[in-house]
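To: structure subgroup
Subject: Chain for Friday's discussion

All,

I'm putting the inputs and outputs inline so they're searchable in the archive.
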Amino acid sequence: MTEALKVDQRRLVCWFSCGAASAVATKLIIQAQTRAENSGNSPREIVVAYCDTGSEDEDNSRFLSDCERWFGQSVVRLQNDKYRDTWDLWERRGYMAGINGAICTGEFKFAPRLDFQRPSDIHVFGYTADKADIKRAERLRETYPEMSIVTPLIDQGITKDICRVSLKIAGIAEPRTYAMGFPNANCLKSGCCKSTSPDYWANHRKWFPEGFAETARIARKLGVRLARIKGERVFIDDIPSDWPTQNAEAPPCDFLCQIISEDLAA
């Protein structure tokens, strides 16, 4: 067997996050593979994988199904069978986030990926051509030099806005949480415990009051002040009821999540 054939038989693993960018990145890879096969090149297995935390908004399931039809293949769902969702994890382990990062990242995103991936895999990530994402992709490669990483959106100059337009053209409604003012669709049933933004938590309280209340209860129980106002840590249910919700930013949730969590906690 030649070295070229060995490389062709490596899996392309597209890490799908139920977001616009990862969806478009996956579609680009599938299209490129189809063109390669039509040109007579050796086929390469493509796997679309999704790490399910059990705390995703219900509309993510609809979006995932729509994308499966668009991709022309199913999405492999990876889960941690020890914990039902982030609330279950936080309560049973007695920890949410702090100087050691966010426990949910390791249990629901990192561990399932490590169990699933192979050393020979080529990893496809939906980092966009926006400045912040370009830096994240660079940091990912620096942090995990042993990984073979592909970033088709950056390579083709595709921004997050272009991804959202691409979904619209394809007739796929993006996750409803975008219209709610959230920058991504991650863990919105419980809220992202890595976020220190009072804007984010005020917006979460607005759209997911029951989920917010449960996260606030657990945070109180564990003594975790998730938000930061004027440099001071506060419990999320201490955020004033009239706090603005226009800039509901949340940290990304990917291979760099642990490092980013530590940065935010500093």
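Points worth raising on Friday:
The first helix runs from residue 3 to 8.
The CA atoms of residues 101 and 261 lie 5 Å apart.

D.
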